[in-house]
Specification:
Length: about 160
């Protein structure tokens, strides 16, 4: 099993990350609230990652839909075409190995979505309906890093001993 995306994004950016679990638990799962958070984060151009590997989806099903299980992906965009039944997420496989297709993403819908973000399968990107996204992805990690924020860092040096300054 791979590492923790939350930890990776935090180490990369130096800022805290929000982790949203997508697997049903005792907590109330509100997909509309999560969708709104995802849309807001995309509009703010925050770094967003997602992980596949739900416990209730078999390895065979992941292979059948061409999404790697226990794998990290980035989310490039989220968009709603008119109403809540037409929500889509643009996911990118950094290794360009995923070859996901679904009937809900018709050619006419894909044309409209490409106006939002022209990323295509040659760079490992694919549009997936929100309903199917919730089926195959186990978490979303959102970095709070914003490149427009003022950043102050102190230059330091490493020493051989914790008692040296």
């Amino acid at each position: 099993k791979g590492g923790d995306m939350r930890e990776g994004l935090q180490l990369l950016t130096g800022v805290p990350c929000e982790h949203i679990g997508l697997e049903s638990s005792k907590d109330i799962f509100d997909s509309n609230l999560i969708w709104t958070k995802l849309l807001t984060s995309c509009k703010e151009k925050l770094l967003i990652g997602t992980a596949s590997g739900r416990n209730d989806v078999s390895s065979e099903e992941y292979a059948r839909v061409h999404i790697h299980k226990n794998h990290a992906f980035s989310i490039l965009s989220a968009y709603e075409l008119g109403d809540a039944t037409k929500r889509f997420v643009l996911v990118r496989d950094p290794h360009s190995h995923s070859n996901y297709r679904e009937e809900a993403v018709t050619e006419s819908i894909l044309k409209r979505l490409r106006l939002v973000n022209p990323a295509d399968s040659s760079m490992g990107a694919f549009w997936i309906s929100w309903r199917r996204f919730l089926r195959y992805f186990s978490s979303i990690t959102i970095s709070t890093y914003n490149s427009d924020d003022f950043d102050i860092r102190e230059q330091c040096k490493f020493t051989r001993s914790s008692t040296e300054y």
